[in-house]
Amino acid sequence: MARALAKPNVKEGGGRQIKPDVVAYKRARILEEASALFFDRGYDIATLDMLADRLHVTKPFLYTYFRNKSDILAAVCAVGVTESLDALEVVEHAPGSPAEHLRAALEQVARIIIKRSDYIMVYQREIMNLERGDAQHILRLRHEFDIRVARLIEDCQRAGQVTLPDAQAMSVWMGGLLVWIPNCYRPGSRRSAEEIVDQVVQACLRLVGLK
């Protein structure tokens, strides 16, 4: 597994192993505060001392779960795409027609992007600060996302629900529409989150000739 998503064998100061669910919760809390800090202050200015203050913990506590600030940035930047891939996995095994699968996948991913908008904006702004291996790993995950969406479109083609010849190639453009969401929606915006989800899903479906 690439370093961006590597999870350390976490132990407390006395050497006692921490339960996996506790590790997952604490890592998630660190990433939640880190994404907000990097979004507000920028990665270069943000420090681990600032992050520790936000979490009301000591800096050594952070080193229990992440190797360094770069490791935290990589994990923040990977959240959106890893959660989106998990959502696609669930949708692919759900009942329904290929068109229903595609619509459900787009809706789920759009909601994830809205929920994780700070994480995604941090990735877009700080990609140059990622270590090379981390950046490549996240790009591979994004490529896998495009492939999975393309497979959903292929299913629609085989079912005769999509007849556009180059529909499969539209998966990349769908991804582009989805990741643009944080640039046009923030909490408190004139349009609700569900309106944004509906509009971007409709735009994606039109790309492949589905209403």
Tally the structural domains: 2
Looking at how many chains there are and whether they match, the oligomeric state comes to single chain
Query: From N to C, what is the helix and strand string?
Result: HHHHHHHHHH
CATH fold naming of the largest domain? Tetracycline Repressor, domain 2
How much is the average pLDDT?
A: 91
Distance between the terminal alpha carbons, to the nearest Å? 39 Å
Q: The biggest beta sheet, please?
A: none
Shape: elongated
CATH class type of the largest domain: Mainly Alpha
What is the CATH superfamily label of the largest domain? Tetracycline Repressor, domain 2
Q: Write down how many β-strands occur, each being a DSSP E stretch of 2 or more residues.
A: 0
Number of helices: 10
Brief description of this entry?
By secondary structure, this protein is mainly α. It has helices spanning about 20-40, 50-55, 60-65, 70-90, 100-115, 115-125, 130-160, 170-180, 180-185, 195-205.
General description of the model:
This protein has 211 residues and is an all-alpha fold. The chain folds into 2 domains: 3-70, Arc Repressor Mutant, subunit A (Orthogonal Bundle), CATH 1.10.10.60; 76-207, Tetracycline Repressor, domain 2 (Orthogonal Bundle). It is built from 10 helices and no strands. Helix 5 runs antiparallel to helix 7 (132-158) and helix 7 (132-158) packs across helix 8 (170-179). The longest helix has 27 residues, at 132-158. It is elongated. 32% of the residues are buried. Residues 1-6 have low confidence and may be disordered.
What are the SSEs and their pairings?
Elements: H1 20-41, H2 48-55, H3 59-65, H4 69-92, H5 98-115, H6 117-126, H7 132-158, H8 170-179, H9 181-184, H10 193-207
